[in-house]
Amino acid sequence: MQILSQVDISRLTSFQNSGIVPELVILESVQDASEFIRTARPFRMLGRGSNSVIRPGVTETVLVKVSPDAVDVQVDGNTLTVGAGIPVNRLMQMMQDAELGGLEFSAGVPASVGGMVAMNFGCWGYEISSFLSSVQVVLPSGEAVGMSPEELKFGYRTSIFHHQPWIVMAASFLLTPTPRLEIRKLVHDRIQERVSKQPLRGKTFGSTFKNPQNGFAGQILDQLGYRGRDFGTLQLSDQHANFMLNTHNATFEDVQHAIESICADVSTRLGVQLEPEVCFLP
Asked: Fewer CB in 10 Å around end: N or C, the chain?
């Protein structure tokens, strides 16, 4: 287990808002997770920070990450088991090595396996939970258990991990035998499609708002003229209105204020209640 002090937030999230985190705990094994969780310290899990904005200076709640090497990769027939700290680009390579396909829809996303599982990442009609056979979880007692997707209460961009102080350590995916080159081509195509439509090379946390029922947040923001709207230290992308960019060293409060302002405006003008997809930590 590593315990780091005074960590710059720019190292922890893709949005890179300004500030310092007093402490960061990195779990390097299931045993580390069991030992840490039994201390009963308030904590919040952080993946690669691709849908997170971190409040600096908070000491009451510690941020916790799982190392990419905390759990060994396993291939058993059509099941690929990987650690929660594995980033998407490594997951894509593991799929090619195992010649097992199905998760290519996530290619190009700067996320980790654990983060995608916890938020039930999805796009283009796919959700990560549809490919899960089980998830290894460390409970507050320190016990490591395997849980089925049905037990984890997956929904649209949510799961039981939003409500329980559990640690995701690994995920087992039931995939489809696919030739290596076919996976590689689909990964390449998905990345190109994503880059053409989303400002992924900028400092962004991905989708700002969840899609409301019977609609799309990006289209609503377009309708109200928010595409490219400048908020001083940040702006909504002129490539995709539902992506917020950190353009001038934005703070946690800048993001919070902009999102609250947009939600209030959309509610007043259209009667639609937008809900942030980005997570505010801790």
From this structure: N
